[in-house]
Amino acid sequence: MIGLPKLRVIKLSGLVKLGDHTLMKLTSTSKVIEHLELTKCELLTEYSLENILKTVHSLSFIDLNGIPAVTPQVLDNLKAIRPDLLIRRYMF
């Protein structure tokens, strides 16, 4: 089997050098990802987050704390894409 077909939980919190391409490649390796934590992954942009929400249909939870690109407008766009998804994002 290619990739990680049974991967359900991904915790990448604190990987400040994690980029969009790497994240999209990782999430494309499994069709059953349910839980994704990306706290303080500061290089991520709204492009990769929107792409993941559109392509990873099994996702039920995502943590987006500490990502500068996730502004209130971006958060609203993400919620519009997947209203069923539980998104954790604290506004300080």
Description:
The protein is an alpha/beta fold and 92 residues long. The protein has a single domain (9-88), classed as Ribonuclease Inhibitor (Leucine-rich repeat, LRR (right-handed beta-alpha superhelix)). The chain contains 3 helices and 4 strands.
In short:
With 92 residues, this protein is of the alpha/beta class.
What would CATH call the homologous superfamily? Ribonuclease Inhibitor
Q: Which stretches of 5+ consecutive residues score pLDDT under 50? A: none
Number of domains: 1
- Indicate the mean pLDDT: 94
Features:
alpha/beta, Leucine-rich repeat, LRR (right-handed beta-alpha superhelix), 3 helices
SSE map:
Elements: E1 9-11, H1 20-27, E2 35-37, H2 46-55, E3 61-63, H3 72-81, E4 86-88
Helix pairs in contact: 1-2, 2-3
